[in-house]
Amino acid sequence: MANRIIAVGDIHGCSAALRALTEVIAPQADDTLIPLGDCVDRGPDSCGVLEQLLVLRDRCRLFPLLGNHEEMMLNYLDGRPQPDDWLNVGGAETLASYSPISDRSAIPREHIDYIRSWGDCFESDTHFFVHASYEPERPLSKQHWQIMRWNTLRAEIPAPHESGKIAVVGHTSLKDGEILDMVHLVCIDTFCWGGGWLTALDTTSGQIWQASRDGRLRH
């Protein structure tokens, strides 16, 4: 099917899962692929995830979103203060994927610059995509980045957005490995790094693909 718009949940360094999904989805040049953020940290191979994304951007329309973990990573590399200690919430695993001695200088400039280019929101005719959450009565162009990157659905599930479009989000890990579908909001962070699945959702057809951390497809 041409012109698919496919969201991918929180990858969190699970490069084998991303590779398995990419192989089965087989994105084409007119497909749009939207990783929902938190591509790095916690899992074993954040370096490998970013290498795959750099290849995918030449293969299809790729629009990765900034998650709170990318924010923390950039703050750490820039020496800026941040809400959490990045190394203690998955950053140590990211550094280890680049260097056996966890040398921050081993992260290629291309990877850092690529993350800096990511946005906070993507919008289609029927859906909008953010990492974490949104403000229902605020236009998408005026959303606060803190809410889009940090707010958890465990604290509050927002009402339908004023645009009438369906929200597709990640960030709130669903430890049972099942998608949360509230009709007006769909969460696809199905806890890949912790033993669940990496989920991809084609918003044009409703098709779902899932892969485990070690790259096993769920049927």
Largest sheet descriptor: 5 strands, mixed
Alpha-carbon distance between the two ends: 20 Å
| Structural class label | alpha/beta
Measured on Cα atoms, how large is the radius of gyration? 16 Å
In CATH, the homologous superfamily goes by the name Metallo-dependent phosphatases
The strand order across the widest sheet is 3-2-1-9-10
Question: What's the total helix number?
Answer: 6
Secondary structure blueprint with pairings:
Elements: E1 5-8, H1 15-25, E2 32-35, H2 46-56, E3 61-62, H3 68-78, H4 91-98, H5 109-116, E4 121-123, E5 127-130, H6 145-150, E6 166-169, E7 180-181, E8 185-187, E9 198-202, E10 208-211
Parallel strand pairs: 1-2, 2-3, 5-6, 6-8
Antiparallel strand pairs: 1-9, 4-5, 7-8, 9-10
Helix pairs in contact: 1-2
Describe this structure in words.
- 41% of the residues are buried.
- The strands form two sheets. The protein has a five-stranded mixed beta sheet with strand order 3-2-1-9-10, covered by helices on one side. A five-stranded mixed beta sheet has the order 4-5-6-8-7, with no helix packed on it.
- Helix 1 packs parallel to helix 2 (46-56).
- The chain has 219 residues and is an alpha/beta fold.
- The longest helix is centred in the N-terminal third of the chain and has 11 residues, at 15-25.
- It is globular and about 50 Å long.
- It has one domain (5-211): Metallo-dependent phosphatases (Purple Acid Phosphatase, chain A, domain 2, 4-Layer Sandwich), CATH 3.60.21.10.
- It is 25% helix and 16% strand.
- The model has no long low-confidence stretch (mean pLDDT 97).
- Strand 1 (5-8), helix 1 and strand 2 (32-35) form a beta-alpha-beta unit.
